[in-house]
# Entry
Amino acid sequence: MKNLIAKTLKEALSTLYNIDWQADTSIIQKTKKEFEGDYTIVMFPFVKMARKAPDAVANEVGAFFKEKIHSDFNVVKGFLNLSFSAEIWIQFLRENRSNLQFGYTVAAPDEPVTLIEYSSPNTNKPLHLGHIRNNLLGDSVSRILGACGKNVVKVNLVNDRGIHICKSMLAWQKFGNGETPETSGMKGDHLVGKYYVEFDKHYKAEIADLMKDGMEKEVAEKQAPLMLEAQEMLRKWEANDPEIRRLWNKMNGWVYAGFDQTYKQLGISFDKIYYESQTYLLGKALVEEGLQKGAFYKAENGSVRVDLRDKGLDEKVLLRSDGTSVYMTQDLGTAQLRYEEFKPQQMIYVVGNEQNYHFDVLKIVLGEKLEKEFGKHIFHLSYGMVELPNGKMKSREGTVVDADDLMEEMIFQAKEKTSELGKNDAANGDVNALYEMVGLGALKYFILKVDPKKNMLFNPEESIDFNGNTGPFIQYTHARIRSLLRKAAENGIDYAVNTTSLQLQSAEKELIKAIYDFPEVVQNAGASMSPALIANYAFDLAKEFNRFYQETPIFKESDANARDLRLQISEMTALVLKNAVALLGINVPEKM
# Structure
């Protein structure tokens, strides 16, 4: 519709004032609720060229629109408000209601890769609530960018090496007594996480003992026997010690099996998985390259650093004094590897805002210090933290909200709520599948409806509400529409035939207008990388349908044309709701 307006406006300006205007939809806005109209054109940019008062220009252009595309108009202080005829809105409905991919753009065959990294777990613990926001955000942005015509490659970087991994390994060696996922009945990632907590417990006890003997806390933290052993284990790992490597492979294998189960239930997938253990050496080579070029320097203690003080940052360590790598080392190597494999036009990293500094450094080191062009096309999709009503979470203290436990709780809450309200009618007879769909839909929607940049408080009970701004409300609206369409079929109503009625009531027109907005919302969500725009659009569309349903009876309507038109509008609303929440990774039920 905006393109039609821009095209007609260009023609009007040329015909009326001999103005050669380069069509630009940015001056076309949706008319504010308090005024009559569908779209508003700001006329002030043309006043000087037309040499007429704003209202005069608006009235003359409005008259041109009325003659050309039969749209009514009114003028308010230089703003031209256009109202399109019912025929135009119904024609839009007819042309698009059978398009199952409505709102989506297919990538061109030669579209370069947009690479997006998310999840990035450590193999010393299971996924938790913070990982859930990361995974859901990364997955949804991937879907949205794909729907905007991008050629998206989804990748995961598993942090499978480092001191934190050694802590779990050392604790299992010392305190595990050979325990395995099979003997314990625990998922592998949960079992390894148990020993990460166990390390911290014994480590703190050692620190306390050293402090009793008069040692300062900072010194005790460095001199505690467990920490020294963990550091020695890391050095052995980097030296390819066979015994340490065998233990590392075994425990990481347990974790990967556990991760796979969690990803599957969450509906998360990747096109490629990278492992830090396979990329950190590439990073070391880049650090050596930087040393040779004079971009980096070796400090007195033997560590390799880069001086970024002229960039408002500080001196960043790229290799420790003992030659072991840091996170930055492997990120350098991973970025280089990805560029060589995919030649992406952009590399997006979905990582929490506590790592803003890290990515500022990464972009400067790659793009400026190492003069890698791809380093200039790194984008950090920074997001806020997730908290619970009872405060923050700490993995090492065992106070995290485990992702598996949270999903189980959400499914249980969905069962309780749907049973209580009598909304547990499953289309395929599998009521447990419905509970899972509703529970996980509630979780995903509640997380994704918040702007990624903001911190958020997750409240499981609040997320499962069939009347609020929630996933279940949208899912129930979709199920209600599908029920209406089944009823029409059962009564032999063939509403697919194009109606001859060209009248639209207010609620009908507003709902079609809301449907029309979907492709633009998708594009805006892609440009801002914000699933919140999709989530809140879906909620508004569901609300608009429920208003339409209350104000315009369907099966009690005596005019068959009007009834069929309302069924067509309902059908397309269900399609758009389904397409919208699919971009959030949410499924919708046929029955509920």
Observations:
- Residues 188-212 form the longest helix (25 residues).
